[in-house]
Each structure stands twice: as structure tokens, then as C-alpha cells.
Amino acid sequence: MIAELPRVRGRLTPGAPLAPLVWFKSGGTAQWLFEPADADDLADFMRELDPAMPVMALGLGSNLIVRDGGVPGVVVRLGKAFAKVAADGLTLHCGGGASGILVSSTARDAGIAGVEFLRSIPGTVGGFVRMNGGAYGRETADILVTCELVLRSGERVTLSAGELGYTYRHSALPEGAVVVGATFRGEPGEPAAIQAEMDRIAAAREASQPLRSKTGGSTFKNPAGDKAWRLVDAAGCRGLQRGGAQVSEKHTNFLINTGDATSADIEGLGEDVRAKVLAHSGVALEWEIQRVGLAGAGAAT
């Protein structure tokens, strides 16, 4: 009951549907969806919340499968108060809810190069920091100076990039922590040249990825020395289907919801692909997409 949760200044919604908030447009509800008014509101809430209650941060939902049984505990979604970016010299001060497009556009206007790759990642600063998001030869670890967190305990801390234990698409961010801000540093550049690079990246994505489909971005991590899409294609998985889920014909490291896929269809198809790749090439692909929540009734095992 709402009376059992801490008072907030933001919005706290019980049983909130998550499918509209994620790119796959599938999945169950959040036990609680919390949209804090600001970082202090979030910190106060986390500090007073029962320590046994799980907490998960949600950005744009682009790299996520929410299982059909929903997500227990509290899902934190950062709104407009966290979607701000300011440039200072070659430094960008970003809210955890700011999009990659906003960060890269602000950098362009300030003559800051080196962050154009964020234009191509459909997520928020919080997700970039947590997952060491990257594309086109660059990743978050290359530009991050510090990040500001609200820990599950409610404590607010600032960590340097070196303290995050970055590896490929992974960080050592504490369980339940929410990234409320980050500082990136670029290099001098001309706005026109920066825009040209952003245009090149946008065109490359449009040509190679199923951007107009209900998808979750890159499904599997690239194995060392190879590309996940090549292994998936070589295993004969292009166009493979399970229920309403399909391996994209355009880019085989993307799964798509053709219209009525459940999250069980999507995750099950991913496991089908992993099994076929393992049988064909001996490579055990690792999920890049995060899978959260509980399986729905009747979900395939």
C-alpha cells in the first residue's frame, strides 16, 4: 500500500504498465514506478525505503526486455528535471536522464568534439554510464570524468571513471544505484565538422539497422575478434521467428517485435539464437540487452 512507502514530492504510481516505456513495447507492470522531482527527492526516498525493496533504474528502455510477469519493487524513471546538459569549456555537465541526442547536440553547439557517437545510442546518460555504452569505435569510458549516484542507501556519492571498473558494455556500479548525473570531457572541434560526423553516424544507422521497428538495439555483445551479427547470420538465424518475435532481416544482431510478441517470445528467440550459434560455431554469445522482472504465467522455459 502507498501508506507503507516514503512520502515523495515526485510521482509514485502503483502497478504502472512498463510496455509503453520500453522500445520492444512488451512486458508487464512495475510494482511501483517512481518519477522523482529531483535528486534530493530520490535520495530521501531511497534512504527511507525498506532495504528489502528492490530498486531498478529505467532510462529510455531501448536496451531492455521487461518480462511479462512485471518488475517487483520500485522502478525509478528520471524525468525532465534530470534531462539537462550544460557545456563549460570542453566539459559537459549532464543529468542522468539526458538523451544521447541532447548531449551530442549541446556538445556540437559548444564546439566540443569526441562525443558524436552518443548521437547513435538510443538511451540516456544513466544507461551510458552503467553499461559503458558505445558505438562507432568510442565508448563512455573514453569521455567520462565523474558520475553522480544516489546509492540504494540514499547516500549521494561521486565516482571517477576509474572507480567504475569499466570493461566492454559493463561497469561495477553498485546494485540499486541510480545515476543522476555525469561529467563528460571532449576535445576542441568545429561545429560544422561535428555536425557532419553526427550526420554520417545517423545515415549509417539508418542504412544498417531496423530503426523503425519495435526493437531493443544490439542483442548480443560482440565476442573478442568477431561480430555477433556475423555469427548469428552464419548460423542461419536471419529472419528466424518465435511467436511475434523475429531476428531482423536487416541486421541480425537485432530482435524485433513484429506486432504482438510477448517478452517471452523475444527472450526465447534470443535463447534459440544463442543455441544455434553455439552449435554452429562453438561461441556462446552473451546478452547485451538487459532482461529484468518475472516470467509471466505460461512462459516457455
Question: Can you describe this structure?
Answer:
- The chain is α+β, with helices and mostly antiparallel strands and 301 residues long.
- The chain is built from six helices and 19 strands.
- The protein has helices spanning 39-48, 100-109, 125-131, 191-208, 228-234, 263-281; strands at residues 11-17, 29-35, 55-58, 64-66, 71-77, 85-88, 91-95, 112-113, 134-135, 138-139, 144-150, 156-160, 178-185, 187-188, 214-215, 241-242, 245-247, 255-257, 290-292.
- The strands form six sheets. It has a five-stranded antiparallel beta sheet with strand order 6-7-13-11-12. Strands 1-2-5-3 form a four-stranded mixed beta sheet, with no helix packed on it. Strands 15-18-17-16 form a four-stranded antiparallel beta sheet.
- The longest helix is centred in the C-terminal third of the chain and has 19 residues, at 263-281.
- It is globular.
- The model has no long low-confidence stretch (mean pLDDT 94).
Sketch the topology as an H/E string, one letter per element. EEHEEEEEHEHEEEEEEHEHEEEHE
**General shape:** globular
**Strands of the largest sheet, in order across it?**
6-7-13-11-12
Show unreliable segments.
none
Q: Whole-number radius of gyration?
A: 19 Å
How does the major sheet shape up? 5 strands, antiparallel
Task: Tell me the span between the first and last alpha carbons.
Answer: 32 Å
Q: Using DSSP, what is the number of strands?
A: 19
Question: Mean pLDDT, rounded to whole units?
Answer: 94
Percent helix among the residues? 10-25%
SSE-based structural type: alpha+beta
Strand proportion, as a percent range, falls in 25-35%
How many separate helices?
A: 6
For this entry, what is the oligomeric state of its chains?
single chain
